[in-house]
TrEMBL record:
Residues 14-304 form the NADP-dependent oxidoreductase domain. Keywords: Oxidoreductase. GO terms for cellular component: cytoplasm. Gene3D superfamilies: NADP-dependent oxidoreductase domain. This is Aldo-keto reductase. Pfam families: Aldo_ket_red. GO terms for molecular function: oxidoreductase activity.
Length: 329
């Protein structure tokens, strides 16, 4: 598979988001199925695997660690810290002493002696970002972490963190239908500072596959998306013109809507590396097929022209989840 650079970190053009194997998108998959999916991704060229301590919590790191043991030195593992798992739901904690404690736990679960890319999962307003960056810098000097990342951070926070410890990658939601990073300055600052960008939700949390409609029932107990405004039945219907655009292009390119969505992201910048998630080998194959879909500059412009004619309905997450996203720039 094509290789791309996140800062100085080289990874496959598409990574694998591992969260949904264990949590948040319905009941957890069988462990053996999860291991098989991760190892199949590696066999098909994926070298970039994304997890976090809060996924499960903990069990997704354990799954990723076990799955990648046979080829640990040939892959890049990204994990994250920053949620107070033992505190109230959604609470944050990024004190330096806490970071240095939880990294040891993550290393143990991942069965490794270093985390290739360690993100602050959400910006903690109670801890200056300089202290967070300093703590990760110490871990890098100790060899326990190789690269530093931030997730859902503002431009100001990115600049301040980068001044203390070079930031390798920013992770935020970005897709054909979710354009916030284009408008809040985050993509611009990444380009300016030589930071890579990792879109999570690159197929619109499954919506851009074209397989979700107003009749789709998301389990309120096990599927976090059930509480996201954009995925209520009214907005699912209202946003169907986006799917129509993708389907039209998919027919032209002998592809699927999901593949067009991922190909569109890959065409934006050479330092953008999407991490679509799945527990299904069939969906994995579909996602990886996107790297073979080449969109010409004129086709990208045509997609933009069509998208500019429509309105995206519904905020991207629930109010509860948006409270942990840094809003100011």
């Amino acid at each position: 598979m094509e290789q791309r650079k996140l800062g100085e970190l080289e990874v496959s053009a598409l990574g694998l988001g591992c969260m949904s194997i264990s949590t948040n998108y319905g009941p957890p998959a069988d462990k053996e199925q999860g291991i098989k999916t991760i190892r199949e991704a590696y066999e098909k060229g994926v070298t970039f695997f994304d997890t976090a301590e809060v996924y499960g919590p903990y069990v997704n790191e354990e799954l990723v660690g076990e799955a990648l043991v046979p080829f640990r030195d040939k892959v890049v593992i990204a994990s994250k810290f920053g949620f107070d798992i033992k505190g109230p739901e959604g609470s944050l904690i990024s004190r330096p002493d806490h970071i240095k404690k939880v990294v040891e736990d993550s290393l143990r679960r991942l069965r490794t002696d270093r985390i290739d890319l360690y993100y602050q999962h959400r910006v903690d307003p109670q801890v200056p970002i300089e202290e967070v960056a300093g703590a990760v810098k110490d871990l890098i000097q100790e060899g326990k972490v190789l690269h530093f990342g931030l997730s859902e951070a503002s431009v100001n926070t990115i600049r301040r963190a980068h001044a203390v410890q070079s930031v390798t990658a920013i992770q935020s939601e970005y897709s054909f239908m979710e354009r916030t990073p284009e408008h809040n300055g985050v993509l611009d600052v990444c380009e300016e500072l030589g930071i890579g960008f990792v879109p999570w939700g690159p197929v619109g949390l499954g919506y851009l596959t074209g397989k979700i409609d107003a009749h789709t029932q998301l389990d309120v107990e096990t599927d976090v998306r059930a509480g996201f405004w954009r995925l209520n039945s009214e907005n699912i219907t209202a946003n169907m013109p986006i799917i129509d655009i993708l389907r039209t292009f998919a027919e032209k390119k002998n592809a699927t809507p999901a593949q067009i969505s991922l190909a569109w992201l890959l065409a934006q910048k050479s330092w953008i590396v999407p991490i679509p998630g799945t527990r299904s080998i069939a969906h994995l194959d579909e996602n990886l097929g996107a790297v073979e879909v080449q969109l010409t500059p004129s086709e990208v412009r045509e997609l933009e022209t069509e998208f500019s004619k429509i309105k995206v309905h519904g905020a991207r997450m629930s109010e509860k989840h948006m409270r942990t996203v840094e809003q100011s720039i």
